[in-house]
């Protein structure tokens, strides 16, 4: 059932122009936030809008939204001690912050900023209202067991391409720690504090909205270097933000057309497009190929072969055609992964070169 939302007074807690961490002295060589990227007072002091929505079936809020979290210190996403979720994003209407709580099967939502109304309108879609988990038929005992234990899993759909595309590009062929660090530094430096109270609710760093396309395009080369992003990845991001509007159109396209639209950009291949469309489009069949570890995980779980390659992975997932991403999510949630024998990917730090 769709809920209504109405304005109410914003919390009395004031929001500073910058997060507390940005007010502290920075070490030499640290990234600096440009004055133009500080949030205007009108944005920070925006009124809150609220909505309540009841999903038609079980829904695990944190499990559904987990793919949006880029590391434990993601500046755009937090899980509070009470289990509620905070999210800051850049919507077509402007920056917005969203706070979600599970009220015994009903989802309570509060939003701030120019994008508040858009976020509340899109709430059911974000939480998988358009997903169809009931059409999924497990073909393996392991997959069936996880599906039974996780009835609240739905595939989210943000409707926003760039916010998932840029961190996916940053994750190309580097360790997750390196990618998370780059995302964290660039968003805190060139993004804006989230509207509403989220910028000051957390003891370390508040929530930030990622930069707009123009700001991404103006980041100097040496700042990419200091964030540990090599020229190939930064160039791919720069190409993407130049055609941001065309890429955002992919959020409403069928999977083949959306994939083709993203992969027109040099530097965006099947791995990056799948990782993006899984989140932006809720694409149930967007299977990730070209991953260092995933084929071995799928091969180990479904066939006892930890040395599987992409070809074998796709063969094993063939019975789930149309739902291969959901099958992969369930396999990953099973925890049935092979022990590591080969060394992990070597971590590089181009910022020290």
From TrEMBL:
Keyword field: DNA damage, DNA repair
PANTHER family given in the database record: DNA GLYCOSYLASE, DNA-3-METHYLADENINE GLYCOSYLASE
Annotated organism of origin: Streptomyces sp. 900116325
Top-level taxon: Bacteria
Protein name from the UniProt record: DNA-3-methyladenine glycosylase 2 family protein
Keyword DNA damage among UniProt keywords: yes
Spans annotated as Disordered: 1-52
Compositional bias ranges of the Low complexity kind: 18-48
Signal peptide feature range: none
